[in-house]
Amino acid sequence: MRYLIGIDIGTSGTKSGLFDLDGKMLSSSTVEYPMYQPQNGWAEQDPEDWWKAVCLTLKEITRDIDSADIAGIGLSGQMHGLVMLDKNGNVLRPAILWCDGRTAAECQQVTERIGKERLLQITANPALAGFTASKIQWVKNHEPWIYEQCRHILLPKDYVRYRLTGEFATEVSDASGMQLLDIKNRCWSEEVLTKLEIDKNLLAKVYESPEVTGRVSTAAAEETGLCAGIVVAGGAGDNAAAAVGTGAVEDGKAFTTIGTSGVVYVHTSEMAVDLQGRVHTFCCAVPGQWHVMGVTQAAGLSLKWFRDQFCGEEKNTAKQMQVDPYYLMDQEAAASPIGCNRLLYLPYLMGERTPHLDPSARGVFFGLSAVHQKRDMIRAIMEGVCYSLRDCLGILKEMDVCVSDMTACGGGGSSSLWRQMLADVFRCDVCTMVSKEGPALGAAILGGTAAGVYASVQEGCKAVIKKDSVLKFCEADSIVYDKIYRIYQKLYPALKPVYQELELC
Questions:
Q1: Which residues are annotated as a binding site for substrate?
Q2: Among 2, 56, 58, which residue's Cα sits nearest to residue 33?
Q3: 238 catalytic, yes or no?
Q4: Does the residue 54 lie in any domain?
Q5: Among residues 238, 330, 376, 424, which one is catalytic?
Q6: Residue 362 included in any domain
Q7: Structural domain of residue 488, as residue ranges?
Q8: Which residues are annotated as a binding site?
Q9: How many domains in the chain?
Q10: Strands 13-20 and 25-32, how do they pair?
Q11: Which CATH number characterizes residue 365's domain?
């Protein structure tokens, strides 16, 4: 029997999955790790934690098979993170993550050096605090001694690739989020690099997602329990991999994912750019094609934050019942009515990207009164995330990007309550797939394509991806959500000047 492996290096943890060639998950393992916030709005991780998690999960999922039967490996991961290595391949500083908001001044610097319009023409996106280019500039400005030692700049999943194969490589979907790539031509932009004074030799070679980027090295085989020589594909950023894992690889196919961040993603064979820079256009995992997506910075992260800070009772009860704490939180939220007894939540714990592009924005419970209970706050978080994702969907429709088929995935997508909220807030039916593995499955399909198991990414999806259930939106509930959403839309404009004042305190 032959197998495929998908490794998803997320923000909360790494999940590795072992799949057969029909896409059935045979085993999986997840290892969590911490995120550090040395200052308000900062977010960092130790890349060694990712590698340790990869080693542990790979050993776990392959313990009952002969790893010589593994045909290929694909990688998926959190995007935009900055990993800097010295000449010996050693990590120079903690990785600065996608949700880190420290680089407002550097974003202005990037915009001034390249020009706002030219930056959009080349990279299809405005300068954002989450993107890698501004992080590199921050290190140059604030830690020049680190930058002087830097010989390699990698993204999180590409650091894992380096540890697996010894190769410095990336691929177009993840590289798109660095703001150093010419999105139309799918290569590093000489103009951007020159104007930002970044040596191209620091960057990895760029591949398409289903291409072979290396093979498991002897050293990595010893650490992971794999056989040396297994093909490792380019893989994809987490959202592009999730698109493959949900079959969103053709025009009009879309998905909404609620992971640490939230995303509304639409595949397109024609490059489309929002000239206001509110949504992102990146290369996708299908060679020669693109995707457009809006991002909510703290979607699942908002609920995780609330769980960790205020739901100790639920966590203890869940442990005794041997269920996930989110299962109990779901039940509590379901006991609160739509609108949460007039309580709204803005999910801006880590600033925001779509549609506000504001690293100074912060989370808000609005309308809080003595009548509210924990269940109202839980539901308000879930509804607030849906409203933020509706902001994303609305912009895609303004761009005339066709959305004909919506799928829900990610951790939040496993909640039928949250999926129903999405359907009612979006006013469209929302389906799920038989496999709930998303990025890990997508990475495995890319690994199989690189290994020649599938003739193309689309053929791999046709062989593997199957629809499961469809949730119909409820017109009566949609009318109620519409009314609350109109109030939600007024809150950020009202608070924007206060956010900026708070930033100066």
A1: 79-80
A2: 56
A3: yes
A4: no
A5: 238
A6: yes
A7: 296-402+411-428+476-496
A8: 79-80
A9: 1
A10: antiparallel
A11: 3.30.420.40
